[in-house]
C-alpha cells in the first residue's frame, strides 16, 4: 500500500491502542506521532520547493497543518515543557517572560512583520536569538523556519527574493541541527535529525544536477557532521535516494 | 499514450474530448447507427488529434510551464465547426475543429499541384468545381488567451451567454470575452497583501448553467462562495457562503486537508451544486448555505489511513465528480481504478472497476466491494491491497444518455447502459 519506504509511525488505525495498558503508553506515543507528522510536513514543504513550480494549494495545506500542530503543542504546553527540561536555573527568568509573551503576543500581532499565524512564537524567538546560543533557542528556532519557508513557497514572483529568503530559512534549519543538544530534546527530535542531515547531503549532491536557478544558493552550504544516528535514518535515506534518482533522471 | 488529465463530452454528447499530460487533445466521435453495422452504435472512435499546448519556459522565474492540459470545455455548436477551450497552467486556447470533405479543382491561377501558373499562359477562364475528398478533420487555434494568470489555472467555465468565460487560478478569477484576447477582467482576487498570511486558495470555479451573472468558486478550506457579477465589478464579497460546520468528534490534523474541495459542478437544473472533497461528495441546495442536503461517502475506509496517505501524497489527489443528464445520479472516482456512482433518490451506490482484466468489451461490469471489516468475503478487496497509483480522477457523463467516460491513468474507458 505504501509507495515510499518511510517507516510508518503514524496515527493509523486503532490497533495501537488496545486496552488500558496501551492507553498509558498512548500519551507519549501521541506526542511522538505528532512530532513525526510535524517533521514530515516540514520535509514536504522543503521538498516541494525543489519541484518545477510548487503546487500552491498543496503548500498552503501543508503549512496550515504545520501551524495547527504547533498551536496544539503550545496549548498543551509541550513547547514550554521543552523549555523547562532543557534550560537550567539561570534561564528561569526568561522562561517566565516567554510565558507572558505567549499570552500577550496577540496584542503585538499588528506590530509583527511576519504572519500572524506564528504570532505566539515570534516575540520569543526574536528575543531569544538576540541572546547567547542556548538550548532554548535551538528548539525555538526550529519553529521559525516554517514561517520563512511559507513566505518562500508563496513568493513566486521575485526569484531574487526567493534566493535570499530560501537561503536564510535553510540556514536556520541547518543551524538548528548543529546547535541542538543531544540529550534532553533527543526524544522529540530523534526521528527527524538524521533525515535532515541526509537531506542536506542529498541537496548539496543534487545541486549540480538541477536546473533551478534559485537553488544555486544551496551550494554554499557545507554538510554538518552527523552527530546522531538511529535506525530511522536508513529508511529515510532510501526515500531520499529515490527522490534524488527522480530528480537526476529528469 | 500519455496520462489523461481531463475528459469532457460536448453539449450533444456526440463528441468526447480528452486532454493529456503531453499537451495533446484527442477527440472521439460517436458512430452513427447504420444498418450495416448495427452493433457499432454507441462506439466512439478517434475523430481528431492535435497538439494543443507545448512546454514553455518562463524566463523571468526560470521555471518550466507544463504543457499538461488541465481542463477542456466545449462551446455550444453554432455552425458546422466545433469549438473548444483548452488550458494548461497559464494559457487558454480556443480551438476550431472543422471537417473538410470537398476540395476545389480547376483553379485558373494555379495548377493542380498548387504551383502558380504564368498569367500569359491562361487562355481561358473556368469556374473551379468542388469535388469530394476523404474526410479530413482540421483543428486550428483561433484565439490564445495568455499572460493573465500568475498562478496555475485550475478551472475554466463557459458562461451561459456563450460570449464570455471565466478562468480561475489559485488566487484569482478572470472574466474573458471569447473574441478578445488582449484583455481580461479580474473578478475575484483573494491574494493577501502579505503572502505570508496566505491560508486559503481557490480550487475550482464554475458559471451557473442558466444565470449568466452567477458563478461559484470553492476553496481549500472546504467552503464555496457564490458570487453575483451584478453586485460589483470585483466579486471579493460573496453573495452566498456555503460551509458545513465541522464535526468536532472527527477532528484531526488532516481535517482541513480532506475538507479541501477538489471539484464543484452545478446540476443541469441549476438548482443544486455538487462538491468533491477527499472522502466524500456533497450535494448542496443553492438556497441553503449552512449544510449540504446530501452527503455520499466515497471511500470512508480511508479515514483511518489518512496519515499514510499524507505521507505518500495521495491525500492531495484532486478527484472530479459529475452529474448524469437528468441529475438523478452522480459519479466520482476512487483508487484501484474504482469509480463510484450514487443514485440520489434510491440512495443506491455502486462501485465499478475500470481495468482490462475486469472488463471485456461488451461484457457487463461486475460491482466491486472493498472489505472494511476483518473478515474478507470472496471477491472483496481489502483496503491494504488497494493500488493507490491507480486513481480515477477524471470522469464524464454523456449529457443525455447513460454513457460514461472514465480515465484510468493513460487509458480511457467508455461504458454504456446495456440496451436489450
From TrEMBL, chain A:
InterPro entries linked to this entry: E2F-SERTA_domain_protein (IPR052262), SERTA_dom (IPR009263)
Compositionally biased spans, kind Polar residues: 128-149
Domain SERTA: 30-77
Renumbered residue ranges of the record's region Disordered: 106-149
Pfam families per record: SERTA
Protein name as it appears in the record: CDCA4 protein
UniProt GO cellular component terms: nucleus
Coiled-coil residue spans: none
Biased composition (Basic and acidic residues): 106-115
TrEMBL record, chain B:
GO cellular component, one term: protein phosphatase type 2A complex
Keyword Coiled coil (UniProt): no
Keywords: Repeat, WD repeat
GO MF annotations, alphabetized: protein phosphatase regulator activity
Domain of life of the native organism: Eukaryota
Record bears the keyword Calcium: no
Family annotation (InterPro entries): PP2A_PR55, PP2A_PR55_CS, WD40/YVTN_repeat-like_dom_sf, WD40_repeat_dom_sf, WD40_rpt
Entry's family note: Belongs to the phosphatase 2A regulatory subunit B family.
Protein name: Serine/threonine-protein phosphatase 2A 55 kDa regulatory subunit B
Protein's gene: Ppp2r2d
